[in-house]
Structures are given as C-alpha cells and as structure tokens.
Write a structure and sequence with these properties.
alpha+beta, three-stranded antiparallel beta sheet, 7 helices, ribonucleoprotein, Large ribosomal subunit protein bL28m, Ribosomal_bL28
Length: 194
C-alpha cells in the first residue's frame, strides 16, 4: 500500500506531464483515486494512521477499516443504487449447522424523480438509501452534482450528471422562460467546471 501511494505521489511531482494539466482536471483525477465512502460498514476514526486510543485504558489499538467487497451487476448501471451493492458471504442458519453461501441484495424499487435542470420527470430504479440521499441533498439535481463520481457507481447517474452539466453550460434549460433559466443557472452555477 505504501509503495503504491509513493508511486502515486511521484506521478504528480513538478516534472511530470500530469502536473501540467489544468487544475480542475487534476482535482478530478485525484478524486477518482480516493476510495468510495463506506456504505455497508462503519468506518472507525483513527488517529495517526491506523491507530486509536482506548478512552478507558489509554492503550493504543489498531484500527482496521477494511471495506466489504461489493458486486455490481450490469443491471446496477440502469438504476441509481446510492453506493449499495450485492454482498457475497456465508450465513449460519442454525447453531449446529455449517455455514451456507448467501447473497445480500439491496431492496430495489421504482421511483419517479424530477430534474430541475433538465425539466423532466424520470422513472428510475433506486434503493431506499438513494431516496434518503436525495432528501439530504434537498433534490435530485443536487444529489447527482454534489456526490463524488466514485460514490455514484452507476452509468445512468454519470450520464445524467454529464447531461445536466452540459445543459447548464449551454443554458439550454427553460428556453421559453428566461427568468426561470437565470434562476436555475444562478442556483447551480457552482457546479460548472471553468
């Protein structure tokens, strides 16, 4: 792990070609290298790398934040699962029985979402977590635009993000209502890449 991070740091040094790229592109590439936020486990906060101090004894304990491997089938690209995936593992159904292979699949549902930028209602396959994230971001457009690319994990979400950004840059929304177009542009202009 340390060797790969050292190689990654060397790629962005002053002499490399990657350092000559525009700032917004470098930030985007660095964001893609970050791990996705944890969905199926709780990440323990660690002090100084991989250690934490026990509040009762004061003893240092090792913290291992190992992400659970997820499976994303091709059907996940047709919906927005909010970072959830299929978990493969083993389950013990009775105390004396052997472990049995088991898959935990997220509960999927059809939901109608509204994009303010595209001025369109869409029927999308989502999970309950996706609906909660849309509510936390106060709307579908803000959820798609504010969520990092590595957390979207869906080709549909990435295509919608691209379409929204292009619509904002070209100012193609609400062609018959100029005041509404300016309101939407002012609301989402922070997401436009310079």
């Amino acid at each position: 792990m340390a060797a790969s991070s050292a190689r990654y740091a060397l790629r962005w040094k002053s002499g490399s070609i990657l350092n000559r790229l525009p700032g917004h592109y470098k930030r985007h590439r660095m964001d893609l290298e970050k791990p996705p936020s944890p969905v199926h486990y709780r990440e323990e906060p660690a002090i100084a790398g991989h250690w934490k101090k026990d509040p009762e004894t004061g003893e240092k304990k090792r913290v291992e934040n190992v992400p659970i491997p997820l499976i994303f089938p091709k059907e996940a690209d047709a919906g927005i699962w909010g970072g959830e995936g299929i978990i493969k593992g083993f389950q013990k159904r009775k105390p004396q029985s052997q472990k049995v292979p088991h898959y935990w699949i997220p509960v999927l549902k059809q939901a109608v979402v509204y994009s303010e930028i595209l001025d369109k209602y869409m029927t999308v396959t989502v999970t309950e977590r996706t609906l909660q994230l849309i509510d936390e971001h106060y709307g579908f457009d803000k959820y798609i635009l504010e969520t990092p690319v590595q957390d979207l994990k869906s080709q549909l979400a990435l295509d919608l993000r691209r379409k929204m950004l292009l619509t904002l840059v070209r100012r193609e929304m609400y062609e018959d209502d100029e005041t509404k177009r300016e309101q939407i542009y002012e609301k989402y202009k922070n997401f436009i890449i310079p």
